[in-house]
Write a structure and sequence with these properties.
Layout (H helix, E strand, L loop, with lengths): L2 H25 L4 H23 L8 H24 L5 H8 L1 H14 L7 H16 L5 H25 L4 H23 L14 H23 L2 H9 L1 H13 L5 H19 L1
Helix pairs in contact: 1-9, 2-8, 2-9, 3-7, 3-8, 4-7, 4-11, 4-12, 5-6, 5-7, 5-10, 6-12, 7-9, 8-9
């Protein structure tokens, strides 16, 4: 794989791991739609600022590309909603292990939509991962969290390959800004449609330093993701991300000190084994 892809993916991993830790700490006791709204006001501000600073305002995408990015971003938004809700019901490392299944799904979607050549190990890898998921599903306390984590995994697995199509024809800064603008609009609609508390308050409590860090890191990560999908194949990006998950699971165990049962660890291990077999066999 290109060295440049290793470099950008490593930066994205570091930024998003820090962001996920802050999201875990900040969103657990907060309404999900409100949290997404406050978070995205910042990501939209920073990504829009970068369009001005970088001079990308000169490269306005054409309307058809904008519409495609908005449509794909709506699917990707399900990943964010599912991830935040899953954090309220599952241990962090369990969420990560379920999300890793999305990497295998991305391979399948890339083959169907983008005509990238899938590996013949795809079904075997997916089957092994499903066994690990079934172990989690057999634990009553995990069932609700698994539903949200699967929504997260599916949202990202489907959304990013769809985004990769218009992002190849769009400046990365514009791509990131349009993604965040779509998420912001959707979160606002969800607050007014489903939120018990419809009031939006712009104060220091809702905009802590952790939320500002989330906004900055997510904005940088979104621009780099847009760049990666512009330059590389979806399959390449997904496969490289596999190697980050075991590291993240160990680090999250150290940071959050969560009590995870032997069955949960077994389920996580089988899921990771299934995805790694996609690369190793």
């Amino acid at each position: 794989m290109p060295i440049q892809l290793y470099f950008t993916s490593s930066i994205i991993y570091i930024l998003f791991f820090i962001t996920d830790v802050f999201v875990r700490q900040k969103s657990v006791h907060t309404n999900s739609f409100h949290f997404i709204f406050y978070r995205t006001t910042l990501t939209l501000f920073f990504s829009s600022l970068w369009i001005i600073v970088s001079g990308a305002y000169q490269f306005v995408p054409n309307p058809s590309i904008v519409i495609q990015i908005i449509g794909a971003s709506l699917v990707t938004s399900l990943g964010i909603i599912g991830f935040i809700e899953a954090n309220k019901h599952l241990a962090f490392s369990n969420i990560l292990s379920i999300n890793i299944i999305g990497i295998v799904l991305q391979q399948l979607i890339a083959a169907l939509l983008l005509h990238e050549n899938p590996s013949n190990k795809l079904l075997l890898s997916f089957g092994i991962s499903i066994i690990g998921l079934a172990i989690h599903g057999g634990l009553p306390k995990n069932k609700k969290g698994i539903e949200w984590a699967l929504l997260s995994s599916l949202g990202w697995a489907i959304g990013y390959p769809l985004l990769s199509i218009p992002l190849k024809q769009c400046n990365p800064a514009w791509g990131a800004m349009l993604i965040e603008a779509t998420i912001l609009a959707l979160s606002l609609l969800l607050i007014f449609w489903f939120g018990k508390e419809k009031r939006i308050v712009f104060n220091s409590h809702n905009y802590s330093y952790k939320l500002f860090a989330i906004g900055i890191f997510t904005s940088i990560g979104a621009i780099l993701i847009s760049y990666n999908y512009q330059q590389f194949k979806v399959g390449q990006i997904a496969l490289l991300n596999v190697w980050f998950y075991p590291i993240t699971m160990v680090l999250s165990r150290i940071i959050f000190k969560e009590n995870i049962s032997k069955k949960e660890w077994l389920g996580n291990a089988i899921i990771v084994l299934g995805v790694l077999s996609f690369l190793a066999l």
